Amino acid sequence: QLQLQESGPRLVRPSETLSLNCDVSDGSIDSSNYFWVWIRQPPEKGLEWIGSIYYTGNTYYNSSLKSRVSISIDLSKNQFSLTLSSVTAADTAVYFCASLLGGGYVDFWGQGILVAVSS
Amino acid sequence: AIQLTQSPSSLSASVGDRVTITCRATQDINSALAWYQQKPGKAPKLLISDASSLQSGVPSRFSGSGFGTDFTLTVSSLQPEDFATYYCQQFISYPQRELSFGGGTRVEIK
Fold first, then answer.
1. Confidence band for A83, pLDDT divided at 50, 70 and 90
2. How near does any CA of chain B get to the CA of A55, in Å?
3. What sign results for the dihedral spanned by CA atoms B26, B28, B32, B33?
4. Taking CB atoms and an 8 Å limit, are A103 and B50 in contact across chains?
5. How far, in whole angstroms, is CA B99 from its chain's centroid?
6. Taking the CA atoms of chain A, what radius of gyration do you get in angstroms?
7. B32 with A100: CB under 8 angstroms?
8. Sequence-ordered list of residues with C-beta below 8 angstroms from that of B4, at least 6 positions apart, any chain
9. Angle made by CA atoms B5, A36, B64, in degrees to the nearest 5
10. A60 vs B36: CB contact, 8 Å cut-off?
11. B-contacting residues of A 17-46, CB under 8 Å?
12. CA distance to partner chain A, nearest, from residue B62 (Å)
């Protein structure tokens, strides 16, 4: 089954850009069956869909974050990435990467990475 | 965007209890609803897709029902490992429409 692993800085300064990578293993990121998704969870709060990308490069974003978010995919590395610009303390969260079956629900998740926004 | 409201936000129950969690959507989402279980410090786990389809390996004491705007997740006989937080998620017309999650229901030991 698919394995996903997030990586990136765990501390980001306010107003700077958060950048995370997700390495996919035991499966191919160019599968037509999947979208690749980022989801976040602020401490002690619920889940929020950030956005998704298809292997073709088509992207879909949460409208509340769209002006600050970019998701990209690197087929050669079997990896997809998230950038979130102009971060504030409200962006402090555990960020999960995951595989989204074509229908729209998540079947495999990374373990999550806690990113704190603080000076 | 479609909003999902879960109720209750938390509940206390005993081992063996029957537990029901509801999820209400602001628009008709047919059966495009999934349920997840999350334990502290872990990623969520998919329990049910398409409102009522139990995922492989998920115990049969879990069941989902509903269509349109009102959905339920039922645990027929709560087990110690079921104490967790549960989330619903809608995916109607994805990817043309945005995904969204309910606020969660925390199931605690009484």
1. very high
2. 14
3. positive
4. yes
5. 15
6. 13
7. no
8. B23, B24, B25, B26, B88, B89, B90, B100, B101, B102, B103
9. 35
10. no
11. 35, 37, 46
12. 17
Judge contact between A70 and A55, C-beta under 8 A. Answer: no
Using DSSP's 3-state secondary structure scheme, residue A50 falls into: strand
User: B53: which 2 tokens?
Assistant: 């389809």
The Cβ of residue B7 has, within 10 Å, a number of other Cβ atoms equal to 14
List, for chain B, all residue ranges whose pLDDT scores fall below the cut of 50: none
Tokens linked to B100? 């969204």
Residue A63, token pair as written in the block: 């409208």
Cα B13 from Cα A82, distance rounded (Å): 39
Integer Cα distance of A53 and A24 in angstroms? 14
Tokens of B32: 């495009």
CA distance A16 to B78: 45
The residue written with tokens 């502290």 in the block is B40
**Pair of tokens at residue B52:** 């009522």
Whether the pLDDT of residue A103 is over 80: the answer is: no
CB of A6 within 8 A of CB of A22? yes
User: Nearest Cα to B48, choosing from B33, B38, B61?
Assistant: B33
What does the pLDDT read at residue B92?
A: 87
**């998740």: which residue's tokens?**
A109
Name residues whose C-beta falls within 8 Å of residue B90's C-beta, 6 or more positions apart in sequence.
Answer: B2, B4, B25, B29, B32, B33, B34, B99, B100
